[in-house]
Amino acid sequence: MAPKKQKEKSRANLADDEALEWLKPRVLIKPEDQENVPEAELDEEVGRILTTINPQWVPDEVAFHYGQGRFVTKPKPTFGKAYPLYVYQGTAIRKDSDEAKAQIAAGYGMVGFDDAGPKRAKVKKSAAEEEEEEEPEAEPTPAEEAKAEEDAVGEEEKYQEKEPPVEPTEAPSVTETEVAAEGAEEAEAEEKEAVPEEAGDEEVFHIKPRVKKLANQFNFCERAALTYVYPRRSVETQTVPPPRANYGSTALQCIIFDYYQEDYAKKMREKEEEKPKRLRKKTTKHAKSAQQIHDEQLAQRIREAWAILERLVNQNIYDDIAQDYRYWDDPSDEFREGMGSLLPLWRFQFEPMRSHAVCDLQWNPHYQDLFAVAYGSLDFTQQQKQGCLCLYSIKNPAYPEYSVITESPIICLDVYKETPYLICVGRYDGNVCVYNAQLTLESSYQYKSDSVRDKHSNIVWEIRWGARLIDGEASFFSVSGDGRVVQWAVMPGELQATTIIALRSTAAPVPGPDGTLINVNSCGSCICFHPEKSDIFLVGTEDGAIHTCSLKYNRSYVRSCQAHHMPVYRINYNYFNNTIYASCSGDWRVKIWEDGRDEPLFMFELGSPVGDVKWAPYSSTVFAACTADGKVYVYDLNVNKYRPICVQAVVSKKTKKLTRIDFNRKLPVIVCGDTKGTCHVLKLSPNLRVMCKPPKKAQGIDQRTLQIMKLDKLLSLVRDPPFTPGVVDEKFEED
Amino acid sequence: MAEEGVAAAPGAAAEKVIHTYPLIRHSDMSEEMRTEAMELSVTACEKFSQNNELAARMVKESMDKKFGPAFHVVVGESYGFEITYECTTICYMYFGGNQAICIWKCS
């Protein structure tokens, strides 16, 4: 029975182990050269005896004693390998020492526990006597034996006196039955016993008063500390057994198979139910989009047809203008030497933007008939809520080719030269956007600065596309009234802003409310990049300073000069000489500057705030400016260094102001915008666009060289003192 | 394209595909416990694919350890049963396409 059970158990354990093996996968690694020991030997038990003998110790070990000069036997190590680190003198003393005997004599040593004193002494006494009586050579009771055992032994031995050893419980009956027979003897014996017992008692009695009662350290309890013991009682309760239920089923292959099929079918159904949703969406979308595509294509065709028709109609309506534009040159020019005129051609207007001002306009660098207009508002007390970006073609003066209404007025724009359909705009609310004119109007802007994170905190006054970044991303720069020049990298899907420079004001720091000094930023109002050195740019500020800055220095200006007394509205580099630039300002003046020179080369006062100044792309000495009193001034420095060669009022100065002006790159026309949302295209009369005649000595020099020569000649007359290399050049030659 | 593929699949798959995924037939266990039981059963049945007894033992012992003693597990291909179980402790599932596993607790 037992071995079987054990076997079962072991099997169970084995199974258990097996079952749990998977929980903790364990691979025993054996060395390859491990000796192969049969199973039986492995199971064999090898006994090991521990002794106190130090097998390491050699009894006859000798060592050379240098003091005595001979070999001496090494003494046996006292502690073996054990070294006492700390010795503490205990209070225990040997029982048979003199001190202990003295203590026992005094009655202290014999007491172990509180109840032990007299009884123990008595028992010991009697036991010792009986031992003496019965077994004279009996072994002495070991002192270490338990007290209880001693008690029992003593008790037993009491009855062993004349009877064979019996269990103590039976003893009384035996004594009773034999009382009659051995009564006398017993009595005698008892008396005999009683006497020494009494004697013992008396002895103990003598000792007792001297016994210092020691409290049991383990379960002793002061009587005073005892509390009332409450009577116990039983209370019963029965919990509701956990709820149970019955379940029955049958597992059969066919049932399992059927259920799997059912489940699979259900899953498929669910899948299909899910799919159609998407498919339906797709198909409907697709169907819709197919319809849409058709519609769109149709609409596109119709639109194109309409566009052509519109242009036809416009061409018919504005036929005389078109004829003028193409063929009419003012014949009076021949008689007015050195004076010219402007012929008003088309006027462009966008009906929703009637009350807006043309804040910026620019001819498209690629399409000569196309120009972009930014509608915003320059009346800051009654600021318009909306703005608009329009592209007009002179082929269709009636309606813009592209227009998109923005939620904030647009202040400035710039058309990207590499991809002329990308236009970046700066807005009144400080945001900058990039518009893609190829996209439909719905999509509005393609990129927009984050209104929360990195927009300007003031009006963006001018925006200019810059060179591509190292990684090939397009970038543009904006200057704003908050005094920052920010470079915007056009990353996929977002614009990344980098502050290039924060313009500092010359004004002393203003003490803040808590005593801190706040540096005042000066407000940037325009920006212009050097045509060749793409990291040099000029920033005009509202306090009239022009700072030459570099992308390389974001803390200090390369150069700075107080050019005007009012906000600088525009800085424009000459197309033929990179060191010459013009600036215009609200202080009525247009100034022509040379890099590195603190004084302007030319200064013209136009009698009204000058909104814009632009160099002519065809001549190195011609520039045009428009003023707030509605006039366009055209200067040719080669013809007249002091007076304009043409002054023409384009709009009524009572109601309108001219804001911006731009030369067409190829055609002899200029466009200027006014504060009522109208763009005027004007044709330059022949006297305004005189080309250089090559001198007789050097025929065949191209026009550009001639223009540069013309300007250089002019400059050499004007320069006083003679030209010295610009500060800018010096500074950058050092780098 | 996609529609055709989906439409063709069930017809062909219905006869050929042998389903081996664990499939709960009846269970009132908590989600956590059911997942545990299912995973245990799958592990055990895969480990002891030839010995249902050991598989059942393994599931039972693991369940006992995790959710307290007195679990009972039956693993087999065809059997019938009528049991009394403590509520929220039964899980009757199929696995491997031909095995039925019944796990319940009753002490």
UniProtKB/TrEMBL annotation, chain A:
Keywords: Cell projection, Cytoplasm, Cytoskeleton, Dynein, Microtubule, Motor protein, Repeat, WD repeat. Pfam families: WD40 (PF00400). It comes from the Eukaryota. GO terms for cellular component: microtubule; outer dynein arm. Residues 129-138, 183-202 have a biased composition (Acidic residues). Residues 144-165 have a biased composition (Basic and acidic residues). Residues 115-202, 269-294 are annotated as: Disordered. GO terms for molecular function: dynein heavy chain binding; dynein light chain binding. One of its GO terms (biological process) is outer dynein arm assembly. This is Dynein intermediate chain 2, ciliary. Belongs to the dynein intermediate chain family. It comes from Parnassius mnemosyne. InterPro entries: Dynein_IC, WD40/YVTN_repeat-like_dom_sf, WD40_repeat_dom_sf, WD40_rpt. Residues 277-288 have a biased composition (Basic residues). It is found in: Cytoplasm, Cytoskeleton, Cilium axoneme.
Automatic annotation (TrEMBL), chain B:
This is Dynein light chain. Consists of at least two heavy chains and a number of intermediate and light chains. Keywords: Cell projection, Cilium, Cytoplasm, Cytoskeleton, Dynein, Microtubule, Motor protein. It is found in: Cytoplasm, Cytoskeleton, Cilium axoneme. Its main location: cytoplasm. Belongs to the dynein light chain family. GO terms for biological process: microtubule-based process. Force generating protein of respiratory cilia. Produces force towards the minus ends of microtubules. Dynein has ATPase activity. It comes from Parnassius apollo. It comes from the Eukaryota. GO terms for cellular component: axoneme; dynein complex; microtubule. Transmembrane segments: none annotated. Pfam families: Dynein_light.
